[in-house]
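Support request from a user on the community tier.

User writes: "When I paste my structure tokens into the form, the page sometimes reloads and wipes my input. The last time it worked, I copied everything first. Here is what I submitted, just in case something in the input itself triggers the reload:"
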């Protein structure tokens, strides 16, 4: 099973872009990735434009997001 923690990929700090979620260790907002993908751009295009965010980071982020949004809570 996939086990990367979202907290290792994304951070919120009030001193970085007023607390907007950014990829850890960067000042690149996560929203930028969604904007690129929504516009039909590829992960590679995003990484080319934001080289401080690695390809693996983006893929791991999307996998973790998928897990969080598709996991069924048995208590629900």
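"...and here is what came back when it finally went through:"
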């Amino acid at each position: 099973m996939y086990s990367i923690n979202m907290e290792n990929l994304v951070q919120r700090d009030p001193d970085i872009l007023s607390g907007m979620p950014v990829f850890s260790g960067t000042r690149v907002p996560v929203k930028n990735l969604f904007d690129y993908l929504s516009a039909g751009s590829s992960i590679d295009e995003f990484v080319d434009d934001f080289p401080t965010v690695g390809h693996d980071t983006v893929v791991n982020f999307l996998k973790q997001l998928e897990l969080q949004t598709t996991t069924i809570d048995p208590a629900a």
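Agent notes: The reload is a front-end session timeout and is unrelated to the input. The beta strands are 10-11, 22-23. The two ends are 22 Å apart (CA to CA). Escalated to web team.
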